[in-house]
Amino acid sequence: MITVDRLTVSYGAFTAVDDVSFVAQPGRVTGFLGPNGAGKSTTMRVMVGLTPPTRGQATIGGLRYHDIPNPGRHVGALLDAGAQHAGRTGREILTIGAQTMGLPRTRVDEMLELVGLTDAEARRRLRNYSLGMKQRLGIAHALLGDPSVLILDEPANGLDPAGIRWMRGLLKGYADRGGTVLLSSHLLHEVEQIADEMILIGHGRIVAQGDRKTLLERAGNAAVTLVTSLDNAALATALTGAGHAVEPAGEGLKAHATTEEVGRAALTAGVVLTDLRSGGAGLEDLFLELTSETARDAVPGVAVPTGGTPA
Amino acid sequence: MSTTAPVTLDLSKSGPTPFSRLVKVEWRKMVDTRGGLWLMGITAGLLLLVMALVVLVVGLNDGRVDGNDLSQVFTIPVSLLLPVFAILTVTSEWSQRTALASFTLEPHRGRVILAKLVAVSALAVATIVVAFVVGAVTNVLCALVTDNPLAWNLDLSTLVWIVISQLAFFAMGFALACLMLNTPGAISVFYVVALLMPLMVWSTLYAIFDWAKDVLPWIDINTAITPLTTDGYDIIGEPVDVGLVNYVQGVWTLVLWVGIPVTLGMWRILRAEVK
């Protein structure tokens, strides 16, 4: 369990983390979301004692990180996959970690196999690694000590789609076995499929937190449906008649109604639907709205369909 | 990881990291990169070159050498490049950003730095052992080439002072590295202060000016400890009376170039934010 309690980190007049409190529970994946520079990495560095807090504290299992004996056996951290000696091989980097924690050599082979780095790849020097390989190595390094808490800063960065899917499965299984997982991202869709709990941070402050459902409720009842039919004009008339706002969107329509309401309207009007899906930009809208004041690029209007990537 | 969700950590599965393990890890980190291998390789080459030169010169002149002569000659190659290890072990944590992993696995940063100092000191002593082994082989070769009898005589005090001065210069490199946390900076300052200035500036000033004879032993380690290591000769080879003041100067220059920078450096390392 990770507990962050009224944490503030200031650099002179600039406040990177501003009075942040949250708890990452065991058995759950907690997503830590926010645009670049929101204070995610700083918060994570405080958790593992690399950055001194200005006020407040972060504890893991009730202990300050400094007070955990051999902390690598309890907390696995991946803060920056590139922060390893460029001249060491992947295997050597893991061996040093294993030796520091007092683990047997066999653990290195197990971890290499787990993250899918081949023997030949493990013999290469880090400077010849792709970003995706570095991430895999970093995840292996974090898992070396069989920790019960994982702290991962942008772990999906540089992974290909198959790699991202693999990592999701890995972390999900890890949490299901009772582990605590905190992972950060600036991409909502990366996190929303895996996180049981989400913490949205912008400009050093927590702007929203909760599970997907709670967050969506907060986003308001703004159901949006994207629909395409063989007769869009007739469908639009039917929907407007039923009291739903409609606007054209690409080849089809965007209706401010639930998918069920649109389906019923189509049934009544006798229009054949060729595509019907939730425009559920709700969470994404919320994410952008809550963080837009603080993001580098303001988002005018906040009307981004699904699949877009925020700031 | 247990099947029930642990709210607190199961501390029974880990004791504190023993210091000896940290030393072993730091030793490994010194020698497991290409940079480290190159430094070792070049030093080995220098040792062999010196061996060949000594055998050649002794053979051509039908000369005689003993343990004391050889120990002076063979400590030069191992004191030239190897102090870089003492610098890199600290600065590479910052330049390669491995401090992130090192200080996450052992958050008591002082222990990590102390483990590095122990590893570096062990290396300094090991290099002297290697130098003596190569020196001994050279001695045998010289005797074979010239048919002169083998002379092993080596004063214990000479040996002790060789080890002390090697440790002193390694410690100085280490201290400057802690202070600067920057590889090129620490290496440049080290070589200017430890090698270039004594060789090109201090010795000249020392030979010409009387004031330099009074001032320099208070600011340069080499000038200060040479009368002690050579048992009564200063850096330009003139006899001096060794007294308490020489020991005070030796200790003071170590405070100046090791004690002060390492203290300031540790203060910085313990407080620094590691990114």
Task: Describe the fold and architecture.
The complex is a heterodimer of chains A (311) and B (275). Chain A has two domains: 2-209, 3-Layer(aba) Sandwich (Rossmann fold); 224-278, no CATH class. In chain A, 34% of the residues lie in helices and 25% in strands. Chain A contains eleven helices and 13 strands. Chain A has helices at 40-47, 90-101, 106-114, 119-122, 131-143, 161-176, 188-192, 212-219, 232-241, 259-269, 282-292, and strands at residues 2-11, 14-24, 29-33, 55-60, 75-78, 149-153, 180-185, 197-202, 205-210, 225-229, 246-249, 252-255, 273-278. The two termini of chain A are 30 Å apart. With 275 residues, chain B is mostly helical. Chain B has one domain. In chain B, 37% of the residues are buried. The longest helix of chain B has 38 residues, at 109-146. In chain B, 75% of the residues lie in helices and 0% in strands. The interface between A and B is large, with 49 and 44 residues.
List keywords for this structure.
heterodimer; A: 311 residues; alpha/beta; Rossmann fold; 2 domains; 6-stranded mixed sheet; 4-stranded antiparallel sheet; 13 strands; 34% helix; elongated; B: 275 residues; mainly alpha; 11 helices; 75% helix; disordered N terminus
